[in-house]
Design a protein that fits this description.
The structure holds 2 protein chains of 2 kinds.
Chain A lengths: L1 H23 L2 H17 L1 H4 L5 H13 L2 H15 L10 H11 L3 H12 L4 H8 L3 H19 L2 H6 L1
Chain B lengths: L7 H16 L5 H15 L40 E2 L30 E2 L23 E9 L4 E9 L6 H10 L1 H5 L6 E3 L8 E8 L12 E9 L2 E7 L2 E2 L4 E2 L4 H11 L21 E2 L4 E11 L8 H9 L5 E4 L3 E2 L12 E8 L2 H12 L11 E7 L4
The chains are: A mainly alpha, B alpha+beta.
Chain lengths: ~160, ~400
């Protein structure tokens, strides 16, 4: 059972961090939330491994953790107390930072739909199930999110040229 | 993942994915396992004792107070420390600010024999009619459990939402009370309040008719719900008809739900402040290191024991009107509760009293609950406390 979890964890961790980073804009927090999500999955792996898509369960936990306000308030303090100052993180490239900043300006539901679809690889149906909304709602969020993101990312001359 | 590189949005998002995964180092599996175990341990730590043991106990003589035992000489002295108190409203928040949800795998709400438990992240699998989590504001923690109550094991969804000190439980309840139907996932259902005594700090109860759905076997059948706030916690019980093996399983009746809520209410004092039941003594609120006190131990667990259920000790204490504290082995000289070699991993839930008679009365009240999950506890110890807050 632990072998199964080990393989699952190794194969999916970085992808979840990418989703959560795109969602919250903080790589450290994304990693912390992802590690917490996998810790919870490990605790109940017998149950999670029997699901159709354990990755979806872990992703949902990760997103839930990231949006928790109290978690944000204590994450930095906890990190400093337990581990000392976090290691210096390499500066992200400008393109990466711009995209993440643009995502942060989107409404939460659109941002989550985009990160789940494009970074998480979840289908519209899977996202609808995770979010508890209709597939049409997910499609609308993706469409509006893409439009808003495109307007932010594309220079004005490209917009007018298309 | 496949990307349409001609699409600037897909290209940008794919770049986020590649760049982030490239810079992400996957921690060793052992780090995740350790974190899971720490989380389990932190779930069992109750603020009120942010205690650190200065030194391990020497030759402590522990054991139940059958015959009176002489305390050993106190070991290396502890530097004078401030007295510690049991802070109001901090019962289930550990020193790092995390709300303890692990206790919810004990039957805090409803009958003491839970037939199915799901944690907060599984609740979506059991939403009835698409219940809306956003109705409940931003709880620090939440859990939904499914129970079968009454002769026919009518399904009842019991949800508990716990709000931290910086979130507004009253505002959250106001939103729930404003439209309980919608918050339960039945926004258009025909509903009416059902007569119920007020519960807790504030409450709302209603009956609604199941909407048309699927083949319609449940349409028009009554469902019932009660929402109640006690301090920083909101509990919601919902019973709807369901498809049984041989036919439709009717919802639990309002009187069944009333009994369920009334049984649960005393335990929710953990979120508001508990008052001992009539006839029971008050426990000590202030203890200084070096004090000789009487300990009622409710539950002992090893933090690495995945089967441990300290929540049962919490439930038992709250049921009779006490908020226990959790201490680490060595905190109280005279209570040798750890298995050999497991001193640092041992935690125990306890009540502190000034007099032996008080401790015995409180212990008897807990024993009378008949909770088999407590095992050999509660037990009374005479101790000299060494904890510093």
């Amino acid at each position: 059972m632990i072998d199964g979890f080990s393989g699952f964890y190794g194969a999916t961790y970085a992808g979840l961090v990418a989703q959560l980073y795109a969602y919250c804009g903080d790589h450290g927090e994304a990693q912390d939330a992802a590690q917490e999500a996998y810790a919870r999955a490990w605790t109940r792996w017998r149950h999670v491994s029997a699901m159709d898509d354990p990755r979806a369960w872990v992703a949902r936990v990760g997103y839930n953790l990231v949006i928790s306000r109290w978690r944000r308030a204590r994450t930095v303090a906890k990190t400093l107390v337990r581990h000392g100052p976090p290691p210096p993180v390499p500066e992200p490239d400008p393109g990466l930072a711009d995209t993440v900043a643009a995502l942060r300006r989107l409404p939460v539901a659109q941002r989550r739909a985009l990160t789940m679809f494009y970074l998480g690889g979840f289908s519209v149906a899977e996202i609808a199930s995770l979010e508890g909304v209709a597939e049409g709602t997910v499609k609308a969020r993706l469409s509006r999110g893409r439009q808003a993101l495109a307007a932010t990312l594309m220079p004005a001359k490209e917009v007018t040229a298309s | 993942m496949s990307t349409n590189e001609a699409d600037p949005v897909e290209r940008a998002l794919a770049h986020v994915y590649r760049a982030t995964t490239a810079r992400t180092v996957t921690p060793e599996l052992g780090a995740i396992v350790s974190r899971a175990r720490r989380r389990r341990a932190s779930h069992a730590i109750l603020a009120g004792v942010a205690a650190l043991v200065a030194v391990a106990v020497g030759a402590a003589i522990g054991g139940p107070l059958g015959g009176h035992q002489t305390l050993p000489p106190v070991g290396p002295t502890v530097s004078p420390s401030p007295t510690f108190t049991v802070p109001e409203g901090m019962m289930l928040i550990d020193p790092t600010g995390h709300v303890y949800s692990g206790f919810l795998d004990s039957p805090l709400l409803g009958p003491r024999n839970a037939d199915l438990v799901r944690d907060e992240n599984d609740r979506d699998e059991y939403r009835v009619g698409g219940a809306l989590a956003q109705c409940y504001g931003d709880p620090d923690d939440q859990m939904t459990v499914l129970r079968g109550i009454g002769e026919n094991a009518a399904p009842v969804w019991v949800s508990l939402y716990v709000y931290g000190p910086n979130t507004d439980a009253e505002a959250a309840f106001a939103a729930v009370a404003a439209d309980l139907r919608a918050c339960l996932g039945f926004p258009d259902a025909q509903a009416s309040p059902f007569p119920a005594q007020p519960y807790g700090d504030e409450s709302v109860a209603l009956t609604f008719l199941m909407p048309q759905d699927g083949a319609g076997e449940l349409a028009g059948r009554p469902a019932h719900a009660i929402a109640v706030r006690v301090g920083r916690a909101i509990a919601v019980v919902l019973s709807t008809p369901a498809h049984g093996y041989t036919g439709v399983l009717e919802a639990a009746t309002p009187s069944d739900l009333d009994a369920l809520v009334r049984e649960s209410l005393p335990r929710l004092c953990l979120y508001r402040g508990c008052t001992p039941a009539p006839g029971l003594p008050a426990q000590l609120e202030q203890i200084s290191p070096g004090d000789h006190v009487w300990l009622v131990v409710l539950y002992v667990n090893d933090i690495d024991d995945e089967e441990a259920r300290p929540g049962h000790g919490l439930v038992a204490a709250a049921q009779v009107g006490y908020r226990p504290v959790q201490a680490m082995q060595g905190c109280d000289v005279g209570a040798d509760l750890a298995a050999p070699g497991r001193e640092e991993a041992t935690r125990y839930l306890a009540l502190y009293f000034a007099e032996r008679e008080e401790a015995e009365v409180a212990a008897a009240a807990v024993r009378d609950l008949g909770m088999a999950e407590l095992g050999p506890y509660p037990q009374v110890y005479e101790v000299q406390t060494r904890c510093s807050g």
